Amino acid sequence: MPSKSPWRMRKSSWRSAFTLSIADVAHLDESDYFGIASGNKVADKFERTGMTATKSKRVDAPVVDQYPITLECSVVEMQEQPYGLRVLGKIENALADEAVLDEEGKVDPAKLGAFAFDQFQSGYYALSEKVGQAWDSGKRLV
Predict the structure, then answer these.
(1) How far apart are CA 73 and CA 61, in angstroms?
(2) How large is the average pLDDT for residues 58-86?
(3) Which residues touch 119 (CB under 8 Å, ≥6 apart)?
(4) Which end of the chain is less packed: N or C, by CB atoms within 10 Å?
């Protein structure tokens, strides 16, 4: 593993917390741009998207205001691995926009509008159709 990798050089500036958001289809272009542009090369990367962030009330990390779900996490451990850095975190709080909740206050995947990346065809696919019931669909095979 190279000793001068970018994550090692910035180790002294690491925070003890992070946020993890679920992007929605409404913000697909902005989310894709976050993966295209390097913050090391584009100083106004975030501002170019028109999105905004506020400081989390629970952890020392930003919350992207436009994303419907955000997990606020504290860092438990950072592990150097041959392929990079593994960050283990503890979820301290979950934020959800009311527009993605059902009548019981649970996240409704159909309302969430989340998408996934397909590395085989380099495409994004919306995730909204329920295709089975967890811990039940496979019972017939037991």
Answers:
(1) 9
(2) 93
(3) none
(4) C
